[in-house]
């Protein structure tokens, strides 16, 4: 039977009694590049973490490829928001990417030569092979984000979740990342990206999830990306609106 990549029904999440995500239901088909957009504090990261079961939810059901997140875990790669990563953690670029191979190793096996070659291939794909021996803390923002994408690639996942991957990233890294994300979609993978720079949303994504605690809109970019919908999600945040000229 054909299952949606993501199926969410009535998802509610709160912190200390304050609702951050309210009653979200949606279903996403595989092979799409999906943007989650909404103003700061709209609950975008919370939504992502709840979908991945990294934080508890109050209510709702979530299925990934028709399975629970526990069952689907190996097929899911997640690149957290910059601030959620400890960049001082002493680990080399290669070892960080090798961590991505763990879900596919047999229990208690450590990555060997085969995994190392694969990790270097993934680093090559993001243009970071020459940096394999560096500490992750020694890289620029764009390089760090590319390494984390390589780690996600190393996992051979079917679904990728990235939280604000373009924040603090140079233009050429952003282009490299977008190109790879599009390639993943062409291969039938599902890619979900939290993003708050509206100016590129139309260019990057197939579908948009427009979020402001509640689901404001969800659908093909051309349909969601209209003035009134954007205005509804970004109510009062005119700095953003100027950016895209609405
Ligand atoms: P976004 O990613 O869209 O900027 P977040 O999901 O980070 O939004 O946050 C949504 C709301 O939940 C905000 O009001 C934020 O302050 C609050 N929040 C996020 N994380 C926590 C937390 N760990 N504890 C308490 N409140 C939180
Ligand atoms: Mg966030």
TrEMBL record:
From the Swiss-Prot or TrEMBL record, give the protein name: Metal ABC transporter ATP-binding protein
Keywords noted in UniProt: ATP-binding, Nucleotide-binding, Transport
Q: SUPFAM superfamilies given for it? A: P-loop containing nucleoside triphosphate hydrolases
Q: Extract the Pfam families matched here.
A: ABC_tran
By its UniProt entry, which PANTHER family does this protein fall under?
A: IRON TRANSPORT SYSTEM ATP-BINDING PROTEIN HI_0361-RELATED (PTHR42734:SF5), METAL TRANSPORT SYSTEM ATP-BINDING PROTEIN TM_0124-RELATED (PTHR42734)
The domain of life for this entry's organism is Bacteria
* Protein family: Belongs to the ABC transporter superfamily.
One GO molecular function term of this record is: ATP binding
- The ABC transporter domain extends over 6-238
